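Ticket #4471: structure export looks truncated?
Reporter: QA, pipeline team
Priority: medium

Steps to reproduce: submit the single chain below to the structure queue and open the exported record.
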Amino acid sequence: MHKGEQGIYPQYHDVFDVNVFGFFNVLNQLLARQEGGNVLALVSDSSHTPMRGSMAYCTSKAALHQAVRVAARELSPEWRVNGVSPSIVAGTRMTKFVDETVPGFRGWDPEKAAEYEKSMVPIGRRATKLEVARVMLDVLMGPAFMTGSIVEMTGGK
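Actual output as written to the record:
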C-alpha cells in the first residue's frame, strides 16, 4: 500500500480524473460537435485483474470498462463506442511502475519477477505499443455493428 499525507490512496483523484472523467469529458466534447461517430477508449486488463499497489488504477479502469459499455447502449446507433484492453505493454510508464514495485511486494529481484510474469503469459512476452495501436485502428475501422465491445489483448493470459 502507498501511504502518504493524504491517506493510503492519495493518487486516486488524479487517476480517476484521467481514466474516467477524461473519457466523459472527451465524449461530451464530441457529442457537442458531431451528430455521430466513433469513440475508442484504452481500457486495461486491470479492469478485471487486481494488482497489488494499484487500487486506484484498477478501479478506475473497471469504471471505464463499464462506461464504454453504457455509452455504447445510450448513444447507438449514431455512435460506436468500444475499448481495447491490453495487459502489460512494453515501454510505458505503467510498465516502469510495475517493474519497480512488483518485485518489492513479493520480495523478489527484478529478474525473478520478469520470469514469473513471462510464465503467466502463454505468448511469453509483453505486448508492444505498435501491436496495441494496430488493434485500436482495427477497432476504429471495424464493422458498423461493433459497439459496446472491449477487445482484450492479453497474450493468452
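Status: closed, not a bug. The export was complete when the record was re-opened. Leaving a note from the reviewer for reference: The chain has one domain: 12-153.
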